[in-house]
Amino acid sequence: MNGIKLVAHHEFMDQKKRRFGIVGGLGALGGADVLLKMIRTAQRSASLNGTDIAFEQRHFGEGAIVADGNYDPTRRKFYVYNALKDMEARGIDTALVPCFLSHTFLREITPEVALQVVSVFDALRRQFATELAGVRKIGVLTSTYLKRTGIFERELGQFAQIVYPDDDTQANTVMQAIYGANGVRAGHHGGECLQRLLDACLHLIDAGAEVIVPGMTEIPVLIDSLRPLVPVPLLDSNLLYAEYALGIDAAAPQREFKLGVVGGVGPAATVDFMRKVVKLTTAARDQDHIKMVVEQNPQIPDRTANLIGSGDDPTIPLLATCMRLKSDGANAIAIPCNTAHAYVDRIQPYLDIPIVNMLSEVVRHIRETLPGVSRVGLLATSGTVASGVYKSVVEASGLTLVVPDAVFQERVMASIYGAKGVKAGFTSGECAAHLAASIAHLQAQGAEVAVLGCTELPLIELAAADEARLPLIDPTAILAGCCVALATASREGDPATTPAGVA
After folding, report:
1. Per residue in 462-485, pLDDT tens?
2. 241 in Cβ contact with 96 (< 8 Å)
3. Is 322 a catalytic residue?
């Protein structure tokens, strides 16, 4: 077929070729017609030689259901979604869904798949914007269900008034031509079904239609027989769809920003981080909030135990968790764990989405909101302190890091890991006493601000007097705010607002 490879249920071998997929089975004749016209179009273009086209058709199971006013598209939604996900898994980058009915719900599906899904209405809009500019009435032959959804008014109404056959012609002519015993779906391509479609076209012309759009993929199967009989342009919507898909540039699908969260390090801090993301998001409804995918993985080895002792190395489990988040569609990753940031430089080179660096964002926050501060106190796990991750980022900004002496560092660890510490589920009492004493200790050493450098520490309930000793920096809240800014910038298409802590 002149360099075009038709593939069904097989992996593609050449990773450099553009790969198209056609979702068949939604109307066998219409899908096959789009495939044939796509192949012929590609054959005529030297630049499209070698194009891979996969035709995905399986048992749908709707039988002889007619798309009348009572049609329920639920099963069709699952069919299309599953077919697109299968194509995605096989490396197809551009998909066509030759089914007008399915276009009523494609916007529900496309954000959930990682391939470009081409709209037939984009192809039709281009035709009306160029070749058919100035048309005043567009006649549409479609199913009763689609007529009632108003999709043609929404998609093409900007160009001209949409006109349909009257109810009697719709039921007894159009629907019978496609779904009747002698209709196209029953395998008939002439005679009664052709006459019915011609009658419907002439009816639309009498209603003022200057061009006719077939709104069912079966109608263009008869286009060569119908066109000579119809005195106004009758569009081959299947051919326009195929040509448009082959002609547009491959593009990554426009998907809503999704934040990946490495959870379980520790578990309560993860919940606190998510709560703060929600709190910091400007939203008037549920849909305004940020998509998040979280892997709550408390089995990641303890970071402190590895950094200051002989505990297992968490590097690979952290990377594996990040990779799973990426495969789930994450655009960026947040790790609400200060100590885990000792491993970020090891992980990032093996990950092609950014990890938002909480530590860098903390330092930037201090610089921007407390410009007079020069000595930054740190309350964190012994692993975080020993790793030097805060020391390097703080000193790189021209600030001095102040850490507790050995005695008070033990008290910080007790507030986190002690029998009555925050990791054991306590937020007041002994853990609060240890934390308050450590804040006072930093103040005595000249610290002008205290970073609560373990994501569990902000969960501890301090007395008002202890909170007032020094400005307390909550890295979890700063990380949450940074992630909200990232999501907002993505939504608004403004890369200039990318935070500094994003690689």
Report:
1. 999 999 999 999 999 999 999 999
2. yes
3. no
